[in-house]
Amino acid sequence: MRLRCVAFATAAGLAGCAEYDHMRFTDVQGATDRADLSNEGITLVHGFAVAARGAAYDSDDDVLANLTLHTDDSAPIGIAPGPNAGTYVFYGRTVGTGQLRVRIDGDQVATIPVTVVAQ
């Protein structure tokens, strides 16, 4: 895990650090019976898609800004921007396993295992 430091404007000029702790996927829509999205892993059925709000949190359960999610072109899961801010569409491209990369401010802070299973 990487540490992301944020300067706080205080009289003492102290700096505080916010450390990435976990992801949450909420407001899941679409083929919800064909998908499981969690911080521990993502499982989708090949050929199905879901949309979800994704947010990264620090250990104090505060939302971290500037989240982006990425996969490689060869990954079995595809990801695209969702219809609303902060939402993503996840779809099963091919059967297999891979990784979803979680980035905050452009820095990779975590990976989440992904699995796409056959119909």
Summarize the structure.
This protein has 119 residues and is an all-beta fold.
Helix content: under 10%
| Rounded radius of gyration (Å) | 16 Å
Mean pLDDT: 86
Q: CATH class, anyone?
A: Mainly Beta
Q: What structural class should be given to the helix and strand makeup? A: mainly beta
CATH architecture: Sandwich
- Determine the number of helices (DSSP H or I, runs of at least 4 residues): 0
Taken together, the total number of domains comes to 1
Salient structural properties:
single chain; 119 residues; mainly beta; Immunoglobulin-like; 6-stranded antiparallel beta sheet; 5-stranded mixed beta sheet; 11 strands; 0% helix; 63% strand; disordered N terminus
How would you characterize this protein structure?
With 119 residues, the protein is an all-beta fold. It has a single domain (21-117), classed as Sandwich (Immunoglobulin-like), CATH 2.60.40.1080. It has no helices and 11 strands. It has strands spanning 3-7, 15-30, 35-37, 42-45, 49-58, 63-64, 67-70, 77-81, 87-92, 96-104, 107-117. Strands 1, 2, 5, 6, 8 and 9 form a 6-stranded antiparallel beta sheet that branches. The protein has a 5-stranded mixed beta sheet with strand order 3-4-11-10-7, with no helix packed on it. It is globular, with a radius of gyration of 16 Å. Residues 1-16 have low confidence and may be disordered.
